[in-house]
Amino acid sequence: MDALMQFLLSGMTVGAVYALVALGFTIIYNASDVVNFAQGEFVMLGGMTTVFAHAAGLPLPLAAVIAIALTALVGVALNKLAIEPARGAPVVSLIIITIGASIFIRGAAQLVFDKQLHRFPSFSGDEPIRLLGAAILPQSLWVVGGAFAVFFGLWAFFTKTLTGKAVLATANNRLAAQLVGINTGWVMTLSFSLSAAIGALAGVLVTPITLVAYDVGVGLALKGFAAAMLGGMGNPKGALVGGILLGLLEAMTAGYLSSQYKDAVAFIVILAVLFAMPQGLFGAKHTERV
Amino acid sequence: MLTVEKLHSAYGRIEVLHGIDLQVKSGEIVTVVGANGAGKTTLLKCLSGTQPVTSGQIDFRGEVITAVPAFKRLERGLAQSPEGRQIFTNLSVEENLRLGAFLFSDDRVDADMQDAFTMFPILKEKRNLMAGGLSGGQQQMLAIARALMGRPHCLLLDEPSMGLAPLLVAQIFEVVESLKARDVTVLLVEQNAFGALKIADRGYVMETGQVTMSGPASELIADPRIREAYLGI
Ligand SMILES: Nc1ncnc2c1ncn2[C@@H]1O[C@H](COP(=O)(O)OP(=O)(O)O)[C@@H](O)[C@H]1O
Ligand SMILES: [Mg+2]
């Protein structure tokens, strides 16, 4: 019982990280149908920039804000320099461009920063909190809270605000979006900066637990992608549920079978779900007709 | 209201508009008729800014708008209901209409939406459904209603009757005619020359990227050449 509780808590923590990465995918995907594989690099940049800004003497909150802002700029640059010039290319080409961009960002980070593992202090200390016979780090609560906060923010953005609907409209039909007066170029800039900022926020929240190095982005992007597919790409609810499910699956497998199998079991479950529900758990059914 | 002078446009190196001259006066319904492939859609796309112009000039309400980007033309009062409807298929009917008024956030938005529902009661019935699930006729109504939500002075309509059953065609033409009473000037592009000329004040006939005839709609409809080529009489 205690063991189960412990696995649940650690699964929630890891799952919240995946959910944050998956949530970052949703905005760019909603605006452009592109799955941005550089999303993991945004997480890495958020963590690494905070580490170095903090080491340079800035207080942690300020370092975090700077890291999030700088990463948002990198997101805008990715759109302006790599995605926008290739506009009109098939979505698959754009996705390959994001993979190229992620390799480039990783290389640049290795040069600008270094190859070491880093961390900075947890926000609320490292004294575990006892909960129903198990222990959880205060920082885990920050991560889980962050995932839920970003989820509610995005959910409100897409369902309650006209700007959020303009993002959806731009993805659905760029031409028609322009005809109703939406500046679609600006929508893309907004989407990339928001996605990048969410990724960076994830990096800031998880670094005290998982540590950060220039190459942590690849694994995170893959797990976040799997989580988003599981939940249904483009849907914030799907990203949150998919991420947490994936985290729990991994924790349970690692706990009751062996940590060697955790990735394999998780992917088998995802494949099974996608086989039965190709759009994911919460994915939109396609209602297009011509 | 709208003056087009010596307009040329091309897809890649193939020119499809070879110097179009056209005028729409305030309060008029003007129609451009012509066979499939004549260049009618390309002309409207140039007017709405979604197709590049190689040379020539577009004046709208006293200003040259040839270089104004597409998304800024509605702000000036020029709306387009494009070929193929181009509604937002994975958003609800109501969201489509709300986005039509993207430029506005005042009380009139709600009033205009009620107005649209009065004009097309079926849209009110289906307001919460995904627009992609509507029938062709309903999608066309939504496309027109969405364009009107942008409070245009001038509405460009591209083949609103395309693919619709005769009864619906009549209904759509009736709606277009009623726009006059709302002070919306209309430029209507149609292959259905008879229906379009019947409700229009003036008309232009387009053939392979050129205007070959123009005049009052009543004269065009009586012209033997047009009766033979476009009205099948
Ligand atoms: N996207 C395009 N690329 C290349 N050629 C096009 C494109 N759209 C239309 N055309 C060509 O331009 C000409 C005019 O087409 P269009 O403006 O659609 O005519 P209409 O609306 O009168 O049927 C046609 O010869 C058509 O084949
Ligand atoms: Mg056409």
Short summary:
The complex is a heterodimer of chains A (290) and B (233). Chain A has helices at residues 2-32, 39-55, 60-83, 91-112, 138-160, 162-172, 174-179, 184-210, 217-231, 236-256, 262-276, and strands at residues 129-131, 134-136.
Which strand-content bin applies to the residues of chain B?
25-35%
Mean pLDDT value of chain A: 91
| Number of continuous helical runs of chain B | 9
* Biggest β-sheet description of chain A: 2 strands, antiparallel
CATH class of chain A: Mainly Alpha
Structural class of chain A: mainly alpha
Element pattern of chain A in H and E: HHHHEEHHHHHHH
Q: Gap between N and C termini of chain A, in Å? A: 55 Å
Span of the ends, CA to CA of chain B: 34 Å
Number of strands of chain A: 2
Q: Main sheet of chain A: which strands, in order across?
A: 1-2
* Overall spatial form of chain A: globular
CATH fold topology of chain A = ABC transporter involved in vitamin B12 uptake, BtuC
- Taken together, the total number of domains of chain A comes to 1
Categorize the overall geometry of chain B: globular
What binds here, in terms of ligands, is: adenosine-5'-diphosphate, magnesium ion
> Which residue ranges of chain B are poorly predicted, with pLDDT under 50 across at least 5 consecutive positions?
none
Strand-residue fraction of chain A? under 5%
Q: Could you list the spans of chain A in which at least 5 consecutive residues all have pLDDT below 50? A: 286-290
Give the tally of β-strands of chain B. Answer: 10
CATH architectural category of chain A: Orthogonal Bundle
